[in-house]
Amino acid sequence: MTIVLSILIIIVILGILITVHEFGHFFTAKKCGIRVFEFAIGMGPKLWKKKKGETLYSIRAIPIGGFCNMGEDSEADPEDKHAFPNAKRRRRALVLGAGSLMNFVLGFLILLGLNLFYPPVHWAFTEPIIKEAEQSADDPAWSPYLQDGDRIVRLNGHALYNYQHFLLFLTMMKDKPMSLVVERDGQRITFNDMQKTAFEGEERYGFSHSYILKEPTLGLRIANGWHDTVHYTRLVWVTLGELFGGGASVTDMMGPVGMANVVDTTVQDPQTSAGEKTVNLIDLTALITVNLAVMNLLPIPGLDGSRLLFLAIEGVRRKKLNPKYEGYVHAVGMVLLFGLMIFVFFNDIVRWVGGGVGVG
Questions:
Q1: pTM exceeds cut of 0.90
Q2: Residues 6+ apart with CB under 8 A from 13
């Protein structure tokens, strides 16, 4: 029963987030005087439709997805000032970017709400510090300049807003050299190329770490809402870097079924209360909507980012691209994306049934 509930929850979450994304395109297009042929919630056969003005509004049978059809890939009458291809480049760019902007804003509002109205989460109001700067018997000059109590503000270029952020990026370090920025007496000090070395038979960076608690003031809660949004955004970039850098593979990617698995784990956790489970699901929703915002801006054919790239090329050439050929590129991209979605879908099922082991 919980599996069915988890699947329904993730369908509702994705349905809302994609609708918000498409509404961003729709609303901005209307404000910019661009014709919208159809605004659809869901995919597949129409369950309900209504024509109002020049726009057909529809609800479709498959509750994941949706679209805002503005005739982006169609050849338009050059005299039609309301056609998307004839709109000024800055207006087209604004419309294309509005979907991701809506997802990003929604993620921020969700995280801001959690920080403002939910009782203070322990980790959200922590700050990583150097607990003890160690000395190595094998290398006396190991970390002589770190001091106990130094506040850690950056790790390998990543700003750290709480102790959990520090632990995440520290885990990703493996055995690579570390760049650390600490704050001491109001001044920031940078330590570059910190290497692991032997300390009492263990390879370590030369310090132990802990955290201090900060007062959860209203200002800090608002700042945390923004910091959490920024952190979720960079998590997507870090994950993409791992994927293209060889640190992760396509089999590690997660689709709707994988998300339902995460929801199922959250719902069934006996260690958390109903309120905590709800907050965790809301937090997951924020992560997914920020993920959608970033992924849609990637220059991959079929996504908004590729359309923005074509607009940039058009601006450099100062000549419009043929919508027909641009449409071919996006169509091929959509086919490839659909193939990837099918692979991820089946891999999610195998991983769920197999207890965490995917194919490949």
A1: no
A2: 259, 281, 284, 285, 288
